[in-house]
Specification:
The protein is α/β, with parallel strands linked by helices. The chain has helices at 38-51, 71-83, 95-103, 113-129, 151-161, 186-191, 259-268; strands at 18-23, 33-37, 62-64, 87-89, 108-111, 141-144, 164-165, 178-179, 195-196, 200-206, 209-210, 218-223. The chain has a 3-stranded parallel β-sheet. Strands 11-10-12 form a 3-stranded antiparallel β-sheet, with no helix packed on it. The chain has a two-stranded antiparallel ribbon with strand order 1-2.
Length: 269
């Protein structure tokens, strides 16, 4: 365990006032400003660090190729400050970024599923043209969220890169809902996004009925990492002006709803 890892340290008391506003992507409506406090963000960061075992090994080196203006960016920075591991900052994720990761012996990377598949594609190209087995020999774990991670991606990254994908689940309003540990079993990691972080509670419902374990329904979350939902001047969720029934939603490469393609589909019909 790295010196100062959060299992052996305490956080300072965070401010109670809402001082951070992060806007949602607008996948299901107009973008909304989610009001966070130091306390809600630190709860998410501490839960991600501890449950995800981020920076637990002496010599761990993290990496971030996405902006602090994204809610995941500030959580990563807070995690780095909590745990004390160094991070490599990159302006963009491209071939030069991978060279940077090799140069600094990055052990932890990720961001979202598209990052995993980009690294996997680079690994395949490397394996086809090089005598070496691994493009990033120091890399041991990938963590991220923002889009589903299919089991096939987990298995391919493990088998071809020798790296564990410990995928997480969150949103702008609750930056970390569930977090996977690299110590979870292969079956758990391939087929889930971990479990709720300390301080969060999650349940599955259908209307007002709470459903049993294993049932499918709507996810409800409450707890320390949930944003403050309303504030003067910030956009609450509006009811839809009209309802359209579609058999399948068009998706972007990140797994989000492709709003322009959906609008075109409605216009055509």
């Amino acid at each position: 365990m790295a010196p100062g890892w959060p299992g052996s340290c305490r956080l300072p008391g965070p401010a109670a006032a809402a001082e951070w506003v992060y806007f949602t992507s607008g996948s299901s409506g107009l973008p909304k400003g989610a009001r966070h406090t130091d306390a809600t963000l630190l709860a998410a960061a501490y839960g991600w660090t501890l449950q995800g075992r981020v920076g637990e090994l002496d010599g761990d080196v993290g990496s971030m190729a996405f902006p602090v203006a994204h809610v995941g960016g500030i959580i990563y920075v807070m995690s780095q400050l909590i745990s004390g591991f160094p991070i490599v900052l990159a302006e963009a994720f491209d071939a030069a970024t991978i060279d940077l990761f090799r140069q600094h012996a990055v052990t932890m990377s990720g961001g979202s599923t598209v990052f995993y598949t980009a690294l996997l594609a680079a690994q395949r190209q490397f394996a086809a043209t090089s005598a070496g087995p691994r493009l990033l020999p120091s890399l041991r774990v990938l963590k991220g969220g923002g889009a589903p991670c299919p089991p096939a991606v987990y298995w391919a990254v493990r088998d071809e890169m020798g790296v564990t994908v410990a995928h997480d689940y969150g949103m702008t309003e609750v930056p970390m809902i569930c977090v996977a540990s690299p110590r979870d079993t292969d079956e758990q990691l391939a087929n889930s996004d971990g479990k709720p972080i300390p301080g969060n509670e999650a349940r599955i419902v259908d209307g007002s009925a709470v459903l049993p374990t294993g049932a499918e329904g709507e996810i409800q979350v409450r707890g320390a990492a949930v944003c403050h939902l309303r504030a003067k001047g910030l956009m609450p969720q509006k009811l839809p002006e009209q309802v359209e029934i579609v058999s399948e939603l068009p998706r972007t490469g990140l797994g989000k709803v492709a709003k322009l393609a959906l609008r075109d589909k409605f216009s055509a019909s």
